[in-house]
Specification:
Order of helices and strands: HHHH
Distance between the termini: 39 Å
Strand content: under 5%
Number of helices: 4
Number of strands: 0
Helix content: 55-70%
Length: 160
């Protein structure tokens, strides 16, 4: 479905929403655990994306049917918010995989698994953990570039 009634719109709905969005101020997390800090930051970004989208939606008088467009909050999202959401998906898969070791899915404790099964489990865990780390690093890089662009925009506004 087109974003606008015009064949060549100057600004799409996603651009309009993005223009009115605000970044989450950098939260301060007081934990030394990397995973806990990453989860707190990424969860805060995803929750902020949802709240800020609803704020912009009300301010602009837009209405999205959440049943027909369940991913409408992704319109106008910032790149660092997309990476935060993807990091949480990787973490979800990682935690599900780790739970196989701690719970008796097959009725056999982990220490009694065959060597081949344990090796396969650790290989998959390493793959999921590296995917999670990769997305957290992409989030950090996108967040840092967003801070730089926010500062540049603020400096430009101050000079005008």
């Amino acid at each position: 479905m087109p974003d606008s009634l015009s064949l060549r719109p100057k600004e799409t709905v996603a651009d309009l929403i993005r223009r009115h969005r605000r970044s989450l101020p950098a939260p301060t997390i007081e934990t030394e655990n990397f995973r806990a800090r990453a989860v707190a930051l990424c969860s805060a970004e995803v929750a902020h994306r949802s709240r800020d989208f609803q704020r912009v939606e009300r301010a602009l008088g837009l209405g999205f049917d959440r049943w027909l467009e369940p991913d409408c909050e992704q319109l106008g999202q910032f790149p660092h918010e997309a990476h935060a959401a993807t990091a949480l998906l990787w973490l979800s898969h990682l935690q599900t995989h780790e739970s196989q070791k701690r719970t008796p899915w097959s009725g056999v404790p982990f220490r009694s698994w065959r060597e081949r099964e344990r090796t396969a489990w650790f290989t998959k865990r390493r793959e999921l953990w590296s995917g999670f780390l990769r997305q957290v690093e992409r989030y950090r890089a996108a967040r840092a570039s967003r801070k730089c662009s926010d500062r540049a925009i603020q400096n430009l506004k101050n000079t005008l």
